[in-house]
Every structure is written in C-alpha cells, then in structure tokens.
Amino acid sequence: MHNAIADLDADGLEDLLVAVKREPIRYHRRTRRQPPSWETHLIEIPAGAAGGKAVKVADVNLDGQADLIVSCEHATDGKIGVYWLDHGGSPTRSQWMPTSISGPEGFIYDLLQMTDLDGDGDLDVLTLEEKGPYLAEGYQGRELGVIWYENPAR
Questions:
Q1: Would you give the DSSP letter of residue 63?
Q2: Does pTM surpass 0.85?
C-alpha cells in the first residue's frame, strides 16, 4: 500500500517502510550506501488492528526515537483504524508497543500527514476516511471525512 522513506534506525541511511494489506509492515533497512544493500524486517500489526494501508515515521511521544504511525483499511467490527508503534530501542524487533489513536470508529483510512496543527510543539495526525465499498455494506452516513487526532504528548 503506501510507504514512507526515513532513517528509522538513525544510522544516516534512509530506510523504506511499507504498509501491507493484512500482513506485517515491511521494514527495509538500508545497510550500505554503495553498492546499495538492504535487509528486511517484519513488524507485526497489533491484535485488534485492521490491515495496513499507510505508514509514517515521526517521534510521536517526544522520546527522541522514531515511531511508526499506521492507518488501516477494513477496520470494521471494532477493529482499530489508526495506531502508533514504539520500538522501545530496537527498530528491528518484530513486536513493537502499540497505542490506538482512533479507537474503533471509522472503517477505511487513507494517507497520513504529521503536522503540529495546534502549534503546541508535538506532531498531530491528519488523515481521511475513504468511503469505498463499505457504503454498499450499510455504512452510509457513518463515514468520518477528514480527521485530526491531537497528540496528547504535551
């Protein structure tokens, strides 16, 4: 689905992160600039979350380390649609500490933008909810539109 390019492990080389439908997030860690060399790590999606749609890299909790923010599709039946992951010091681990951002509201989220919308010094999450095929399944009138999730870090 959607990807992010960022230096996740702070080694000076840009890495590639990819959200994948119903599968773990792919973390393609660049290990050498020339000739290019990569190693791939799988980051599990948390229990209760829907399948990945988009991923962004940002320091959500202001601890100086990069975190992942993930949006999902197929977030029906109480599944989480937007969450963030903290690697706890080792970005190559498969299990990261998840925190729900959206809760069970919504059903198909799209691209993510990280910006300090309220000017308080931390990054907030902006996304939108697509309508897609769910309107035919009885979700009409329940779509959320453009969504701002304020970061409570400050």
A1: S
A2: yes
127 Cβ neighbours under 8 A, 6+ residues apart: 54, 71, 82, 109, 110, 111, 112, 113, 146, 147, 149
Are 140 and 80 in contact by the 8 Å Cβ rule? The answer is no
**Structure tokens that stand for 95 in this block:** 């299990």
State mean pLDDT over 97-125. Answer: 89
Q: Are 31 and 9 in contact (CB under 8 A)?
A: no
Q: How far apart are CA 127 and CA 149, in angstroms?
A: 8
- pLDDT tens column, 8-19: 999 999 999 999
User: pLDDT digit string (tens) for 7-57?
Assistant: 999 999 999 999 998 899 999 999 999 999 999 999 999 999 988 999 999
Q: Which residues contact 104 (CB under 8 A, 6 or more apart)?
A: 75, 78, 79, 80, 81
Backbone angles phi, psi at 132, to 5 degrees: 50, -150
